[in-house]
Amino acid sequence: MRALVWHGKEDIRCDTVSDPTIEDPRDAIIKVTACAICGSDLHLFHNLIPAMKPGDIMGHETMGEVVEVGSAAQGALKKGDRIVVPFTINCGSCEQCRRGNFSVCETTNRNKEMADKVFGHAGAGLFGYSALTGAYPGGQAEYLRVPFADQTHIKVPDGLTDEQVLFLSDILPTGWQAAVACDIEPEDTVAIWGCGPVGQMAIRSAVLLGAKQVIAIDRLPERLGMAAAGGAITLNFEEDNVIERLNELTGGKGPQKCIDAVGLESHVSLAQPDTLLDRAKQVVMLENDRPHVLREMIYVCRPAGILSIPGVYSGLIDKVPMGLIMNKGLTIRTGQTHVKRWTDDLLRRIQEGQIDPSFVITHSVGLQDGPEMYNVFRNKQDGCIKVVLKP
Amino acid sequence: MNLRANSARMKGDPRILRSGRGSLGAADRLGRALGWFSIGLGLVQLLAPRQMTRSLGMQGQEGLVRAYGAREVASGVLSLSVDRSMGLQSRLLGDAADVAMLLAALRRDNPKRDNVMLALAMVAGVTVLDVVASQALKARHGRERAQPVPRSVTPHRGDRSGFPQGLARARGAARDFVVPPDFRSSPRPV
After folding, report:
1. Total domain count, chain B
2. ipTM score here?
3. Which of A5, A222, A254, A336 could pair covalently with A103 via S-S, beta carbons 3.0-4.6 A apart?
4. Spatial separation of the C-alpha atoms in residues A33 and A64, rounded to whole Å
């Protein structure tokens, strides 16, 4: 089969690889009908996530048709089922899964010993996201082995297109969880940094959950335009003073709820000198991540407010004002997404027409064009916000 | 390369049979090669400045050569990073500094004048490569991309709100959602 394979920094190739096979009775194999490039795949593209190895297959936003089912998964799945594959692999029976904390499933990380050493305690296995999360081959491929398939799937009802449901795999529940973590009340202002795909989903989620106003912060006109179409007030941080504008829009008190949908690769510019220092440190490996957005939202958030962080961070960050967090009594919520915890509800909302996540797609190409689309997406060319690959 | 990649696979995981089209272009490869060249030259300047000044008739300028070496290494590291264009631009500035230093050494009384001329020719050649790589990287990775973008197989329908029933109906439509207890944070005002 063909698959997008990581060979090193900025080196992803559309290779021919051997087909996956059933390895465990709980496995299933799907023929991929649609998959997507996620913003967090760019961190792998830039080799900022440790423990990627040449030969790793990329991709964690995938759906397809079941073509083979292991004996222990046959009660839950059958050939011909259309399923979306959550990016967090979950067993469904460990203590964390029983609590709904699927992204920290205690069973599914194949490299638990290594991950325990790095993280203290391992999280769940993830598709296509380095040896630290189990080294599972990803779904930017023609076929995918789905481990723990009896649990790790979302069945697609008839009548919905791939584009409507594909993002149940990651960005829709990720944006939703980020907004739910804000525990939004009708008087709340929710400020969202980053209008990439997860930011866009967080905006729609905050609107649906009834925030009084949603403020979206970015610098790219096409992303701000899409944010405005979803009901957000937009701030261009290259033109507006973010702190001043957020205070103006909240009667001088700051937003109650802040969402960081940017993560470890915040934009670097002369106008934000801390980002230059962070970038320099990152190049010489004195710091893993660039936490400009964290600093800004800690500063501007209303006391007793909530910081929700769906953006991916990989390791160590510098100069984050813990004193402000403590003295303002801020609550921080973060984590990989407990995808399955939210998808039944979100699927219902898609079916009822409350939301159609396909709005975010700007490019839909064949798998063979995947490597070049990594460049187009990374470079923000051609108005690119979300790339879907059709193997 | 594929042998190494395949040997790191877990049992049963797909192995590479044949490598295909990749994301690295010729401009990226040239930029990286110039980055490694920069690091190599910089290390020589940092570690053996006396040999360098002697061969160019610039004795006494070892400190300056070391400073240039540090600059070369920094440019090289940047050229190997994802900020490759910035690295190439810093190399171009460095080329100008190199030319200025060598022109200063091109005195009639310099017994190594021939070596200086040769060095100038080499710097000119590398500058051409830096200009070519810099332009090609801009065309490939600049926001205004000069190369065509792969054509979409299914163009998007155009509505970007994400709310099929309209924005007004969407506001608060999910207020029926019950936030789980472990996601509740703020006590309600009394």
Report:
1. 1
2. 0.93
3. A336
4. 5
pLDDT in tens, A5-36: 999 999 999 999 999 999 999 999 999 999 99
φ, ψ of residue A337 to 5 degrees: the values are: -80, 135
Question: Residues 108-127, chain B: which have Cβ within 8 Å of A?
Answer: none
HSE (side-chain half, CA atoms, 13 Å) at A388:
27
**With 0-12 CB in 10 A as exposed, 13-18 as middle and 19+ as buried, what is A280?**
middle
Interchain contact A112–B (C-beta under 8 A): no
Domain at A2-169+337-390, CATH class: alpha beta
Residue B73 with chain A: CB contacts under 8 Å: none
User: Which residues of A, range 222-251, sit inside 8 Å of B by Cβ?
Assistant: 225-226, 229-231
B83 at the A interface (CB within 8 A)? yes
Asked whether B163 and A355 are in contact (CB, 8 A), the reply is yes
**What amino acid occupies position B142?**
G
Tokens of A140: 């930017």
Single out the residue of A149, A180, A24, A169 nearest to residue A76, CA to CA: A149
Long-range contacts of A118-127, Cβ-Cβ distance < 8 Å, separation of 24 or more: A118/A50, A123/A336, A124/A88, A124/A89, A124/A90, A124/A336, A125/A88, A125/A89, A126/A60, A126/A87, A126/A88, A126/A89, A126/A336, A127/A59, A127/A60, A127/A62, A127/A85, A127/A87, A127/A89
CB contact under 8 A, A54 and B1: yes
**Would you call B54 an interface residue with chain A, using a CB distance cutoff of 8 Å?**
no
Contact call for residues A338 and A100 (beta carbons, < 8 A): yes
CA–CA distance, A282 with B77 (Å, rounded to integer): 12
Right CATH number for A172-334 from 3.40.50.720, 3.40.50.2300, 3.30.70.920, 3.30.450.40?
A: 3.40.50.720
Is B45 part of a structural domain of the chain? Answer: yes
pLDDT greater than 90 at residue B149: no
- Helices A197-208, A171-180: axis angle to 10 degrees equals 50
